[in-house]
Structures are given as structure tokens and as C-alpha cells.
């Protein structure tokens, strides 16, 4: 075979390889594009189903559906004010407890924990995330609620008696179940997510930055406050938002311990309800079009609340990135 024929053969083989690789690239591109479009179609389908199912309730009540507290299936008077209130308040309680505790655990694991203890604590945190929500609900109903009723709630009522604002928040009979109990259960459930993500982003801080701060005489608290947290604030906020999203949508655990009362009480010890708990409790019993539509409208409201929270978090992260860029 002469050199010209050999060169032509190599050129033909190279063209075949390039064509085959181009075909593979095209297939991979269309496959990934189809997956992305499928996600958008699924999201659009969920939104369409929620809006279509909510139309009878929206036409019947309008904006008053959000501002009405009364929920009476017998007279077909439905209002979402109490479930919205319960959803927001229990989630806020959960975040107020879980965020500082989760960040504290992450700081301990990454900065203070002995090497032999890191893995057991990390494994225990991950195991908490794997426990089904119904188990949390059962534990909260049979273990946590009686403890709160017998010891914690009476102590809170006695401690804050006569204190402005706080007296109203911690007043009334100690039922054990209620808004506060649901918030505590949620804080335990979201704690593993916040802790794990915060720990992971803390470990991305370059050791040289921390060693330089220690070399200048900084304490561990100063290193965490002035080096670790500013470097990882985007990831920490992302973990907080992930935990908040879990708290907003949690159903079974909250249903067990919140009391499932469609009313707004001034006290955190009083029974209440959330959007998810109301849907889970009543959807199988809804026998009329308006009743079913009202429950679907609650789902639409929860979707909107979650979307607003995630959008606000995204905007916050973008602003933080811009400031960091400056």
C-alpha cells in the first residue's frame, strides 16, 4: 500500500470516528434537553391542575378565601386564614430553633470536635434525616407532647406570667399538642438538612485562611465569625432555605401533634392547623365540589408560599454574590 492510500484510509477512519462521536453528542444533547423540558412540563402540569381544581373555590370566595378564618364543611363556608397562619408560624418556630442549633453543630464538627468523634456525630445527623416523618409524629404525640404538657408548658406559663406580649404567647391550658409542639417537631426534622449542608460548606473553607487568622491571634469564635461564615454565607443560606422548604410542606408529623383546629389562637400552646395537615385530614372526606376545590385551593396557596420563599432566597443569594463580587 502506497503512502497516499494509507493516508486516505486513515482520513476515512477519522471521519467515521468523528461522525460516530458527533452522533453520540447529538443524542446526549437531545436526551438532556428532553429531561430538562420534562421537568418544566411536570411543573406546568402541577400548576395547571392546582389552578383548575381551585377555580370553583376562587369564584365562590375570591380574595376572601385567604382572609376568612371560618372552616365549616356543613354550611360550605371555607377560609384559609387559619391554615396559612399555622403553616407560617410553625415553620418560623422550627427555623428559630433549628438554624442556630444546626450552625452550632456544624461549627463544633468542623472546628472543635475530636477526630474520633466526627464520624459518629455526622452519621447520627444523617440518620435523623432518614427517619420517616410519621415516626416523628408518633414520637411527638406519645413522648414529646406528654412531656411538654406535664413539665415544659406549665413552666413557660408560670415564667412569662405578667410579661407583656410573652404572656399572651404562652397562656392558656397546657394541652401538650399545639402550634409550639408542631414547631418543635419540625425543628428536629429540618435540623439534619441545615446541619449537613452547613458542615459541608464549612469544610470548603481553605485551611490557609483559617490558619492565617489563627496565626494573627484570633480565637475560634473570631475565625468562625470573620472568616468561615462570610466565606460560606451563600451555602449556609441555601441550607436554611432547604430546611424552610421542608418545614413548610411537612404533613404527617405535624398532623399528629398540632391539634387540627381551624382557628387562630393568640397563644402558641393552643391547637391549630397547617395547610398540609388540613389537606391530609379532610381530602378523603370531601364529598362536594366546593369542599374539594377549597382543599385544592389550599394546595395552590402552599405552592405559592413555597415559590415566594424560594424566589426571595434566590434574590437574596444573587445580591450577596454581587456584593461579594464588588
From TrEMBL:
Highest taxon of source: Bacteria
GO biological process: phosphate ion transport
Cellular localization per UniProt: Cell inner membrane; Cell membrane
InterPro entries referenced in this protein's UniProt entry, alphabetically: MetI-like, MetI-like_sf, Phosphate_PstC, Phosphate_Transport_Permease
Stretches assigned to the ABC transmembrane type-1 domain: 84-313
An annotated GO cellular component: plasma membrane
A GO MF term: phosphate transmembrane transporter activity
Major site of localization recorded for this protein: membrane
Regions that span the bilayer: 30-51, 84-109, 121-145, 177-198, 295-317
Cleaved signal peptide residues: none
Bilayer topology term: Multi-pass membrane protein
Keywords of this entry: Cell inner membrane, Cell membrane, Membrane, Phosphate transport, Transmembrane, Transmembrane helix, Transport
Function statement: Part of the binding-protein-dependent transport system for phosphate; probably responsible for the translocation of the substrate across the membrane.
Family the UniProt entry places it in: Belongs to the binding-protein-dependent transport system permease family. CysTW subfamily.
PANTHER family from the UniProt entry: PHOSPHATE TRANSPORT SYSTEM PERMEASE PROTEIN PST, PHOSPHATE TRANSPORT SYSTEM PERMEASE PROTEIN PSTC
The protein's name in its UniProt record: Phosphate transport system permease protein
Organism expressing this protein natively: Stenotrophobium rhamnosiphilum
